[in-house]
Amino acid sequence: MKKTVEEHAERFSEKAAAYDDSKSGEYRACASLVIDRAAPEPEDVVLDLGAGTGAIALGVAADAERVLARDVSEGMMDEGRRKADERGVENVEFAYGEFRDPGLEDGRAVDVVTSNFALHHLADDEKREAVRVMAETGARRIVLGDVAFFEGPDPGAPFYSPEVDDPATVGTLVEAFTEEGFAVTAVERVHDQVAVIVAERTRGLRA
To answer: What is the reported pLDDT for 25?
Structure first.
């Protein structure tokens, strides 16, 4: 990670009020695909990591029993809570949580894990650790939308800043999921540097 958790939290809190309006069409397409592919069932608990202002958490809330939205930035979560209040959404819980420690209650069951445009802040070894933590929730499905390279990186592209971000290749992410007992059932190419990956559990722990 090129910045500390605290530095990322402060950076995103500062831009929280304008965050939604600043996002690209590719970001919005990616978020839409993550919501679509998450496909929770009515009794499912969804864990959304790096939830930000709630694009994914609020997007899946109507189809799930409960959504656990986790982020390190209080400013971003405050925006998410405000949007939830405006929309009358009562089944989304915004609380502090990191990829390596989502802040779940002991024994709390999770059925689906989602994350959008957040994992690329971690180094590749940290991404693998984050995928391991996602797998340990017992979820049957993980849906990741993120900056990820199908080919080589292009620092001139608008989807990441080399000074603060550290995207992986799509292949690295697929390997991380398969190592944890998941089958990657879909890879959606939103842009040469933006992917949505759907992973379904094939073996191991279930909550």
So the answer is: 85
Please tell me the predicted confidence (pLDDT) of residue 205: 56
Q: How far is CA 198 from CA 9, 47, 76, 120, 141, in A?
A: 27, 15, 25, 16, 7
Length of the chain as a residue count:
207
CB-side neighbour CA atoms (13 Å) of 194 = 21
Give the predicted TM-score (pTM) of the model: 0.89
